[in-house]
């Protein structure tokens, strides 16, 4: 068996209380249709294919660049074939992307890629006359080093220190090897850990962070045909020159994006700030906003020196890829929705936007503890005080709900005996006063009862801290290494088996180690 047996639970995003209003509404199909092109369902892709087929894509350039970028890594037959497929007009891409986080960073990095791979495979089954290639777009031009230079592992934070500046993809990896040695010592010794450390050392011995990330992601997902691309390419950026000129010289894109963003902001919080110029300029050790005038000749001759920000990158991506769908997190879905109008202005097809799968992985022992404490697995999203209160009230008769109802009925009966508004006001005031007294007594009873169940309450707190580190979702903090260290390749293979990219529910998985 190549994957773990798991208990599977699903919960609506809105019932987790961890996601934005936009995500909640989008997954419930209750968002204004003007904010997106087509909703992510199998039936939508047929029309998306027809529309994207009309857009001119330089497939020869794309294939040439991908071959050049990936020539130094050990590509699987599936990935090699997928690159070749991109020459054909019947081949389309499903794309996700991310910053070059150290050792893939938080777990959702992994979930994005698996969602993308699984969607490509699902579409191939549904539309067998076409090919669908999963793409990982490396955000190598990002310059926010502090967002990518660390991982959290079993509650400990490992930080990669560097004095380099500029785009992170060019950072040298020499000091990362020290971090791997620290992790090696921290984890202890076993066969799975040794193989993982060996893999990390091999991949991160590459010269730059871009090269190392490409190699590591390929090792994890190459067998599924994933194709990894780096947008920081002179020849690809030549395709972006007209948009560079419109934004940098004429500043004609910002008004369109701002208008779109203003409309969205009436209902939802915008994720990205719109600037008059939405490009950076790259130089040795620097990536700085374009603030001074730039000539057309400079753009024509050196397009590689200009780097799109978060609002222009989607245009760049959809300009050079035969892409049908972008798979992203809630924040990404939000800023993509700020761009629909500018896509129309540029005559670029707006892709289907798919929210990546979100997952909570609960160890079997914790899963059993949650059940033994009398909770449904979905209850874990309640706050720690709420769980404690729920547990204590179930253990003893200290809930004063009956008394509160009796008090309410008593005062309602008294209120019916008079029509005098002054007396009615007095009755209401007295009811509120006595209700507060009952609630105060109830809290003291609960507090007293908690002391009798301190061991169980400590278990609740420990589980909550583990599943919600720093009071955030597990997927936003914990790193792949902790789970790979326990399950090896089975962890990714199990996720690959269980994640359905078109299922708009939060997924809870718990492995059954003892099941054969």
Written account of the structure:
The chain is built from 22 helices and 13 strands. The chain is of the alpha/beta class. A hairpin with a 2-residue loop joins strand 7 and strand 8. Helix 6 (176-187) packs antiparallel against helix 7 and helix 18 (401-415) runs antiparallel to helix 19. It starts with 5 loop residues before the first strand and ends in a 5-residue tail after the last strand.
Are there runs of 5+ residues with pLDDT below 50, and where?
none
- Write out the strand line-up for the largest beta sheet, numbering strands in chain order: 6-3-2-10-11
Q: What is the number of helices? A: 22
> What's the rounded overall pLDDT mean?
94
Task: Determine the strand fraction and express it as a percent band.
Answer: 5-15%
Total number of strands: 13
Compute the CA-based radius of gyration: 27 Å
Overall geometry comes to globular
Characterize the main sheet.
5 strands, parallel
Structural class: alpha/beta
Helix % is 40-55%
Terminal-residue CA separation: 8 Å
């Amino acid at each position: 068996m190549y994957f773990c047996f798991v208990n599977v639970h699903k919960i609506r995003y809105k019932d987790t209380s961890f996601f934005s209003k936009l995500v909640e509404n989008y997954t419930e199909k209750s968002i204004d249709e003007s904010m997106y092109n087509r909703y992510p369902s199998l039936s939508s892709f047929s029309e998306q294919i027809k529309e994207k087929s009309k857009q001119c894509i330089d497939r020869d350039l794309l294939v040439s660049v991908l071959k050049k970028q990936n020539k130094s890594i050990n590509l699987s037959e599936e990935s090699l074939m997928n690159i070749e497929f991109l020459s054909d007009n019947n081949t389309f891409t499903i794309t996700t992307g991310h910053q070059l986080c150290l050792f893939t960073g938080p777990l959702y990095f992994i979930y994005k890629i698996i969602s993308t791979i699984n969607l490509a495979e699902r579409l191939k089954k549904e539309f067998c006359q076409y090919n669908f290639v999963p793409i990982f777009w490396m955000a190598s031009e990002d310059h926010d080093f502090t967002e990518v230079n660390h991982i959290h592992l079993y509650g400990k934070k490992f930080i990669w220190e560097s004095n380099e500046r500029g785009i992170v993809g060019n950072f040298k990896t020499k000091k990362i090897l020290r971090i791997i040695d620290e992790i090696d010592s921290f984890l202890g010794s076993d066969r799975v850990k040794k193989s993982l450390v060996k893999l990390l050392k091999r991949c991160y011995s590459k010269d730059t962070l871009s090269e190392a990330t490409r190699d590591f992601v390929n090792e994890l997902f190459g067998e599924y045909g994933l194709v990894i691309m780096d947008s920081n390419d002179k020849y690809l950026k030549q395709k972006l020159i007209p948009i560079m000129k419109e934004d940098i010289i004429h500043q004609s894109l910002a008004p369109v994006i701002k208008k779109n963003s203003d409309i969205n902001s009436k209902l939802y919080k915008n994720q990205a700030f719109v600037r008059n110029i939405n490009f950076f300029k790259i130089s040795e050790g620097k990536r700085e906003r374009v603030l001074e005038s730039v000539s057309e000749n400079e753009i024509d001759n050196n397009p590689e020196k200009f780097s799109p920000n978060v609002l222009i990158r989607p245009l760049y991506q959809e300009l050079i890829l035969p892409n049908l769908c972008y798979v992203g997190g809630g924040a990404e879905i939000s800023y993509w929705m700020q761009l629909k109008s500018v896509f129309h202005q540029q005559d670029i097809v707006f892709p289907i936007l798919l929210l990546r799968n979100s997952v909570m992985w609960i160890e079997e022992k914790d899963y059993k503890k949650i059940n033994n404490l009398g909770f449904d697995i979905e209850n874990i999203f309640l706050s720690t005080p709420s769980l404690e209160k729920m547990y204590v009230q179930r253990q003893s008769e200290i809930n004063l709900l009956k008394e509160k109802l009796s008090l309410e009925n008593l005062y309602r009966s008294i209120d019916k005996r008079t029509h005098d508004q002054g007396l009615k006001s007095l009755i209401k005031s007295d009811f509120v006063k006595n209700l507060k007294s009952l609630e105060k007594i109830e809290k003291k009873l609960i507090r007293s009862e908690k002391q009798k169940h301190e061991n169980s309450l400590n278990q609740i707190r420990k589980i909550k801290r583990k599943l919600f580190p720093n009071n955030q979702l597990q997927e936003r903090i914990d790193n792949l290494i902790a789970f790979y260290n326990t399950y090896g390749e089975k962890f990714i293979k199990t996720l690959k088996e269980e994640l359905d990219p078109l299922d708009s529910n939060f997924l809870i998985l718990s492995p059954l180690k003892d099941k054969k």
